[in-house]
Amino acid sequence: MIDVVTAVVMAAVLAATVPLPALAHPSSARADAADAAALRAACDAPGWAKTLHAAPHAAADARAYALDGRHLQWPDAPAQGRYRLHHSADAQLQARPGQAVSGADDSITLSLAKAPAAAAARLAFLAPGPVLSLPDGAPLARWLRGQLLLAREDAQGRVLDATHVQWPGALDDLHRAALEAPLGAEVTAASTQLGVWAPTARQVAACLHDTGAGASREVYTLRRDDASGTWSATLRGDQRGRYYTYLVDVYVPGVGVVRNRVTDPYSVSLTTDSRRSYLADLADPALAPPGWSDAPRPRPLAAATDMSIYELHVRDFSRDDPTVPAADRGRYRAFTHAGSAGMRHLRKLARAGLTDVHLLPVFDIATIPEAGCATPRVPAAAPDSASQQALVMAQAAHDCFNWGYDPYHYSAPEGSYASDAADGAVRIREFRAMVAALHASGLRVGMDVVYNHTTVAGQQARSVLDRIVPGYYHRLDAKGVVERSTCCDNTATEHAMMARLMADSVALWAAHHRIDSFRFDLMGHQPRAAMEQVQRRADAAAGRHVDLIGEGWNFGEVADGRRFVQASQRSLGGSGIGTFSDRMRDAARGGGCCDSGAALQAQGWLTGLHYAPNGHADATRSALLAGADLVRAGLAGTLRDYPLQTATGDVRPLSQLDYKGQPAGYATQPGEVVNYVENHDNPTLFDIGVLKLPRDTPREDRARVQLLGAALVAFSQGIAYFHAGMDLLRSKSLDRNSFDSGDWFNRIDWEGRDNFFGTGLPPAADNGKDWDLLRPALADAAAIRPTPADIAFMRDGFRDLLRIRRSSSLFRLRSAAEVEALLRFGNTGPAQNPVVIAGHLDGAGYPGANFREVLYLLNVSPQAQSLVLPEEKDKRYVLHPVLRGGADTRVRETKYDATNGKFVVPARAVVVYVVE
Question: Is 521 a catalytic residue?
Answer without folding.
Answer: yes
